[in-house]
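pasting input
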Amino acid sequence: MNENEQLILFDMRCLQDSAYKHRGVGKLSENLVRSVDRLSKKYKISTLGLVDPALPPLEDSFRNLVDEVCANAHVGLERGPTVFIELSPMTHDPLFVARVVNDTDVLKIAIVYDFIPLLKPERYLPNPSNRIHYDTQLTWLSRFDHFFPISQYTADELHRILHIDSTRITNTAAPVGSAFELLRSSALRERLPKRYVLAPGGAEPRKNIECPIKAHARSGALQDAQIGLVVAGNYPWDWQARLRDLYVSCGGQSDLLFFTGFIDEDDLVAIYRGATCAIVAAHMEGFSIPVVEAMAAGTPVVASDIPAHVELVERGDLMFSPDDAQEAMSKLEMLVSNESHRAAVIEDQSTRWQRFRADNIASMFWNAVDGLLVTRKPGTVFNVTRGSRPRIAFLSPMPPDRSGVADYSAATIKELGKLVDVDVYARGKLLEIPEGASTANTISPFPFVSPQYDRVIGVVGNSDFHLEIFNLLMRYGGACIEHDNRLLGFYRILHGLGRTQDVAQMELKRAVSCHEIDSWMSDESLLEATFLGELAKSCSPLFLHSKVTTALVNERLNAGAIHLPFSIYRPWTYDPVDLTIKNNARKRLGMEDGEFAIATFGYIHSNKAIEEIIWAVDLLRSWNVPAKLYCVGGWATLEHQLFLDLRSRLGLEDHIVFAAEYTSDAKYRDFLLAADAGVQLRTHFLGGLSGGLLDCIAAGLPTVANDDMAEAMDAPSYILRVPDHPSPVLIAEALAEISDRIRDRTKLGGERLLYSDEHSFKRYSELLCQYLGFDLKVPWRSRMKEVAA
Amino acid sequence: MNRSPIFIDLTNLVSNPIQCGIHRVEREIVSHWPGTAELVPCRFDSAIGSFVEVPADRLQEIIDGISGDVDRRRTPLPPGKRPIATDDLVRGLFNPEVFYDQLRLNAYSNLCRAPHSGIRWMVYDFLPYLRPQDRSCRTTELLMPYLRVLREVPQVSFISAAARIAFIERVIRMPDRAGPVIPLGGDGLGMPKLKFDGGKRMFSFVGNTDPRQNVAAILLAFEKLWDDGVDAPLTILGANGDQAPVEASIVERLRGREPFNQMDKATDGFVRHILNESRATISVGSAEGFGIAAYESLHAGVPVIALKGIPSLDLISPGGRLTIDAATPDLIANAVRKLLDDRIAEGLWNDAAGLQIPTWKGFVKQLAKWLQGEIGTMKPGEHDGK
């Protein structure tokens, strides 16, 4: 983007929320978003709407107002000049947009409606939790650069409450709907009395509808003249009944009181136009749309003397105390009985509302924004933009969590820390700071909203270790390193059947039944979906370790996932293909001379085709290959009796060894050194990776692997591929080929070294930084020097 | 020479007779048996865990039921009267079927382990083991016990050289157990040799639109030819396969085009009709166990566009076919264009007319010799096809 390009970011949550989207907040918001192209004369603009997936989806009419929508506020460094318009800062969770609000490179603008809860805390902020929440919202509001209050009164309150300087305030207002400028018929109007007073209200005590009720009921002139009272607003039946009782008790004739219930804008305009006069008696408002609407409809209006009304009406003779029904009554009687007074008021009010036309408001708003852009000096919150080392928040399970992902993250941070500053966020309090990291913290939303991080990376996998990180990524976005080729168990167990179905359907673009989900759960070889759609949508970028899965996700979900090759996390400090080392390891493990030792690494589970491998050993022995299989890894499930039974049925007790318990690292490495061949298979595909296969590759151990896995890992030539549907014959055939042809792995050294180099954590960290947008050639200042400076 | 009766295990045929390749082979054996030794049909009775004889009239009834109008195939078989003596079975039990029933396999295993066992099996192919990607995942528990017993069988014959090579070099690796290749008959349709007629421009494919048959490549080749204005109608004689969404979508696309025709039912009568109308047939499946369609086409004198390596075609001398190295739309289209040249086509028709294709009678005669111990192991290609 060059300086003439501008990204305009709108928080559109108020347009998702039925409590706001068709009311004053929604009308103003829609008007501003719709008119954003007024900036196009000067800038090349693109627009992005932030939407909350937890709220109802945006209606198409709102969605079409912006170029794109995004499910979180994570906007990358590459975005260029950005303006953020918070359309309704006090109505939804401020943390959702906190990362943008904290970004001093962004021009942040807030529309401010009112601070009514502070005026009546006993009603709107009844408990400490409400008050803390409101104070939090006020704190976040104070961080905006410029404010557009909807009235002078709200501007004054903004200054009073948050001490906002007047140079940071430009008034705006809610627009009068275009329907007020057109004349349409209304069936509702036909049902109302010939002459009536209109009292626009709303099912809110602060609207003070009781005042017009009393004033009208007590007015002998109005009652005698049979002038009705029409109350607009969606009052529930019980509330209407109470108001009727009040009306009658004050002397009103019950047949003169009408409630419109919910009405559309055309009917609203018609009943405004048909009214003899209007009365607005609210106790508190930031701005009064009814007052302006009445003026726009050519209906004289009297209003309570609250500040928001005073600045609109500007005539004491048309105002009354909201607590004085008698005064209100006299103002009404004056308008009704004195035709010349009424005509004068209409004349006076006929021009006051013009500045609230939608066009005018839009022009004033975007002209003001343009002015702010001209004078703006962007800040330099990001470390990289001020020449410091990039700082990354890295959220992941970490040791002592016993998971492969935790070990992998620890190894990543060790190298990544050499390139950038890494703050680790782990599931619990870590006893010591991991090697390579600057700090160790507990997982929270903080890194997602803090301006101190150039990037936030969350690590996700197919287990409950990752739930909290997943939820944070869903909420706030950020970069994600996703370890698994599928998240079936993660969704089904932790998110329930409904969401699991939704995610699968989104990916496969077809209906997916509960039965199908169940069948996938019981046999992952049937699995069709990766369940990575939500992550692909929320995270930028989404890193995947498998080439195959990356291609699949990008194709199916039209995503931009990045392949970051899986790193070797059991590297060798000595040459693992050395024959003496191999022989010593064989002795330590008690392997016999001449025995063709086959090892398979990792938990022993049916989805690793253990049955097929056992059958392959049976075949090999029938071919006079002295094969012996070592399953190096504990039992994954209770189904292991099946494997024991099969071994026994085939008479292979002496030729297949199951390590029933967790194998120490030293012993595990001994098997990698001592074996003649490896075999690593998966019966679920979609680009699944295997730490075991990576260990075999790193150790230069010729290994049989299925096509999908070998392809996903860019396996070198000493990994012999077999079809994904496991066939013992083909597995045995490949193992026999290793036995005949490439058992001597000393000859594989060159390829092994090349692969190890390309799949080192050093290379991984460099690529990660590159994809995150950090130029590693820049000589950044270290944080220590910066602190000293 | 073996004078004892030879028992033939027809368990699947008699319990669930259908129109499939193996049952066809069994019917031909029973119908054409010329041996000096008596051929005694039997079946494995799982209730008693042993083999029992199948009454001749009952067997005939089943065979008639397959080809006749009256469906009497499903009538339950009566329980076996008494088990056939183990010694008799050991002397000469022949299994021409592929089965995975563990009890029956165990019975064979025991018979094979008897001293001087004369158990003999016929093997068709090893596709489920060598091309697992064509089948559903996780079939090991079903399929492997068959192989385990196969490696105990003292003598095995094969219907193709490809199957024999796979047995010796890949799957069982016991060359001494490998018997002869006994090619199936190509005359099952009972057609005379057809003559070249330059007016015939139709090409045909006989079989279901299974991805292994590379039907998508055939369809795309013809679509390209038609787009180029080439007059070459195509008829597919077979239904759309369940697991062939790609093929189904192309078929749907082509359905409205005049030169394209598809008939779901590939009965012998339809096949005869199609061969009569065809300029050539196309057989480019990459996972053929035998390839009977190409074989029968050549027997009828109709040339074939064939993919290299179809086992049945490797059994007969060259000629009568245009062989392509890969089943790609371009190569198939090129072969079709060549065959539209009358001079080339006529040459291929003449070659096909001169080919000696094994007959069913010859197959059974050869089989009988092997079962009676008159011939032993044969090298691939050494067979009596007459």
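fyi Residues 69-73, 378-386 of chain B have pLDDT under 50 and may be disordered.
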